[in-house]
Amino acid sequence: MFTRIMSMVMAAIVMVTIGISGMSYFTLRNQRISARLDALMQEAREISYLAAQNSASSAGILFGQNDSTIRYIRWKADQVFQDYGAYILVVDRRGRVMDNMRTAYAEDPDFVASLDGQELNLALTMVLTGQEVALRLRIGGDPAFMVGVPFVQDDAVLGAVLIQTNAQIIEGNLMSMLPQTLLVAATALSIAAALVFFYVRSVMRPLNDVTRAARTMAEGNFNVRVSTETGSPEITELATAFNSMAGKLSQVESSRREFVANVSHELRSPITSISGFVEGMEDGTIPQEEHPRYLALVGDETRRLSKLIGDLLALSRLERDDAAIDASDFDINEMLRRAIIRRVNDLESKQMEVECEFHQEPCMVRADSDRIEQVVVNLLDNAIKFTPQGGRITLTTRAEGEKCTVTVADNGVGIAPEDREKVFDRFFTADRAHTAGKGTGLGLSICQRIMEMHGQTLKLLETQEGTAFAFTLEMVKDA
Question: What percentage of the chain has pLDDT greater than the value 70?
Fold first, then answer.
């Protein structure tokens, strides 16, 4: 992964460097050409100035034989020729001409032969109108540069100075810039590559740690963690999220193992009892006259086993992703009354008192009535189960805004403070030694899941005595 990213980054850097280097080279090249043309134009201006001065001192005669200005013009033309290898033409309106044709031909006859009279005449015509020109020409297939400057006296154009040179003189030595440009580009590329290499490696190191940790987690080890001290906010956030995920997966795995262990234990207990009683009756260890009593115990354990399996299946169905509720409108007070009627025998056998405090009649709610009835029955059964003889159970409904709060309270033994946070855990039963055979420890977990599916809550309330559970339901609007 590191190699692939480095290859992609380096390819991008190379392309950007080549592009910038090319642009820089051509920009610098054009600047250098413009600078040399400006210098050539300045030489033409100086010659035109001298020509204008000579015309003034010679009463309009351009070329006097002994005039010092003419000698200086010729010297200046020789200097320009040495610097640029240029053909220099100085001409006035009378058609009198001074040039360096002989010198230029001696040095470069091919260049002189390539001079185009038509191009010279065109440029001369433009200059004699009073404008300066700077042209790039193609003469005989070869590029050339021409500059032209008029010389003026008393606002009158007296003549023109034309300088034409081979383009190679202006552009040729610019090729020497290419190796330097390439060297600078290579140096910049090397520095950029080194910086990117170390930066990407520093970024990839924690990513590689996350990758290795993920592979370790895939092998079943959820205790692995990665360092969050990376210096990069994004990588730090990723590492933190990964550690959070690992922690949650570890909790899930721990819960899964605990769940499997609890299921195994809860299933083993009744199965062991049933198996032991049946074997005792089969091999005669249990006398014939005791068989009815032990058969009754086998029946109790079978029903306990059946209830456990039923609760497990119910919890499994509730936790499926496609589990849904079938909501309808019903009177929660009427449901509580029916639940009491169904448990009237148990209540009378323990001589228990039931109080109903319904603050609104009827109290219409919207929920899945079958599942809510399962919650009510479970809470009522727990209250009956863990409340001593002659105890009291109180059922309350209270409408508060858009919600109805249902409370099932008793004055029984209550729940120890250290067990309050565990009452909704699967298979948890407070004081197992005294409640063996009384439940599977899944009832409250099922109730809590049902309320979560409704988007409501089920809570264990703080009480002075006994136990109280409260859950909320959505009220029917305009009920």
Answer: 80
In CATH terms, are 2-177 and 325-475 the same topology?
no
Residue 432 in this model has a pLDDT that exceeds 50? no
Do residues 115 and 87 lie in contact, with contact meaning Cβ atoms separated by under 8 Å?
Answer: yes
- Per CATH, domain 325-475 is 3.40.720.10: no
CATH topology of domain 2-177: Beta-Lactamase (3.30.450)
d(CA 124, CA 111): 19
Q: Which two tokens stand for residue 306?
A: 């059946």
Indicate if the pLDDT at residue 471 is higher than 80: yes
Parallel/antiparallel/unpaired status of strands 458-460 and 364-367: unpaired
Domain ranges of the chain: 2-177, 222-323, 325-475
Could you give the C-alpha distances from 79 to 76, 83, 100, in angstroms and in order?
Answer: 5, 6, 11
Taking the C-alpha atoms of 11, 14, 20 and 21 in order, what is their torsion angle to the nearest 10 degrees?
-160
The DSSP 8-state label assigned to residue 147 in this structure reads E
- In this predicted structure, what is the pLDDT of residue 278? 86
Please indicate, yes or no, whether the overall pTM of this predicted structure exceeds 0.90: no
Using an 8 Å Cβ cutoff, are 458 and 375 in contact? yes
Q: For the chain, how far is it from start to end, CA to CA, in angstroms? A: 63
Question: CA 36 from chain center: how many Å?
Answer: 53
Q: Which helix (H) or strand (E) holds 277?
A: helix 233-282
What SS3 class is residue 108?
coil
Fold of 222-323: Helix Hairpins (1.10.287)
The two three-digit tokens of residue 295, written as one number? 């058969």
Return the DSSP state at 358.
Answer: E
